[in-house]
Amino acid sequence: MTAFPTTFRTTTGPVRGALTAPDTVAVRGIPYAAPPFGPDRFRAPRPPRPWAGVRDCTRFGPVAPQSARLPGAPHWSPGDEDVLTLNVWTPARRDPARADGGLPVLVWIHGGAYTFGSSAQPDFDGTTLCRAGLVVVTVNYRVGFEGFGHVPPAGAGDERHPDNRGLLDQIAALGWVRDTIASFGGDPGNVTVAGQSAGASSVACLLVVDAARGLFRRAIAHSPVNSCSSVALAAETTRRVAAAAGVPATAEGLLSASPQALVAASDEVVDAYRRDPDAGPRHYDPVLYAPVADGRLLAADPLATTAGGTARAAHPRPGLLVCHTDQEYWLLDAVGSSAKVCTEEQLARFAADFGLAAGLVKEYRELMPGAPVPDVHLALFGDLVFGEYGRRLAGAYAASGGRAHLSRFARRRTDAEGGAVLPWHCADVPFAFGTLADESVRFLIGGAPDAADHQLSRRMVASWASFAATGDPGWEPLGASGEGPVHVWTTSGSDGGAGDTERIAAFRRAWRTYGFPLLEP
User: Fold this and answer.
1) Taking 60 as the threshold, does the pLDDT of residue 241 lie above it?
2) Residues 491 and 455 sit within 8 Å (Cβ to Cβ)
3) Distance from C-alpha of 486 to C-alpha of 475, rounded to nearest angstrom
4) Which residues pair with 325 in a beta bridge?
5) CA 145-147-153 angle, 5° bins
6) Which residues are known catalytic residues?
7) Looking at CB atoms within 10 Å, which of 22, 50, 255, 412 has the fewest?
């Protein structure tokens, strides 16, 4: 083995990272695009500016404009402009027998409801996956209005301020990986793009847009979200946010509002939806921003595009790995982002607001005998937004000619106080990254990890590494019908129980009977 350098070449100048572990070099805060402010605000990402000398890249770059939503999360403040950066973890030593030095690459896109989050979260540390044989890249991109807000064009043909700027940032980052990752020991021809929640839905979008064609070979989507906005709804959101900011809903008006003013205005609009039980779907968990089906970058919701058979043509046969957790929405309830539904009357109104058939609610009630109303609501909401959407996405992808694997995260245990630790939204991520030891993830995983947890994490890390390297996560793909084996992640290493599997199959049958709506945020 020979020592790997800590200084690397990029197309815009050399960068210096640091040993963060005896076997790993981390290079943080590398610009992949120019700061999206001033004349570049609300525009597609521009190439980064070259620099002279060696750039110190031993710290994460600043986060995109947002409100702090997670404990200990970094804050954005005016003057933090170099927000389009990425981070690379690469082995500190190179195997001389590997002549090309081309390790598989995993590019991670963080979640956060398209509104918050960053690549600097401790549970996204790439060290363990790097040890498993990958070069790991994590990406910051524009969120909130800066990344996904609709800026009205001045007239026909005005494309100065495109929709989906956050997706365009991600595509620019993948372009940087293609052009530069070989300098870090990665193989630009063997790239896997991965994400969770909004990051997973970003991955699903990247699967079906022409602009991302050829930039990655495989895709991992944990808990993709049933949420894609029409231009009309995005324009309505803009009108509300502009009114809250006190500016006209025009490009000039929005540009006159500072990023922090639009963050504050967005929060004000969200709060108004939360307090208004007549606000329809947005009352229950108001998320303003999502990818926009603008007819330019993105034609339609990725599930609709995939089910229509166009995903294969847009992106020839990348492998897809989808995972969802058993009790997704329980996290959103625990952190207070979801409105409480506690009575049968509230449950019926919830179903009506989302256009769900009364028979579907009845099926869930019968499949959860004795469960309180809040649990029935959370199960129904979780499948509507995450579980059934992800299952359908994997199935449609397989049926359209792609290779798709499906899994679900079902790890359960009892915490120190005797309470149930649930397989809820985000709980799977630190297991897949191998970051269980970080104290910041204790809330997500229900306390300190035990030996069985570490064993489960090792299996998930190995599965991701194998999928990124070869396309095989360790179990068979779905068949051409869209049906097939579902791998279940538990601390026992086997299925979490036939009862769970049978009940989930029954929930699926109910959705097939009563219909599954695609949602707007």
Assistant:
1) yes
2) yes
3) 8
4) 409
5) 75
6) 197, 328, 425
7) 22
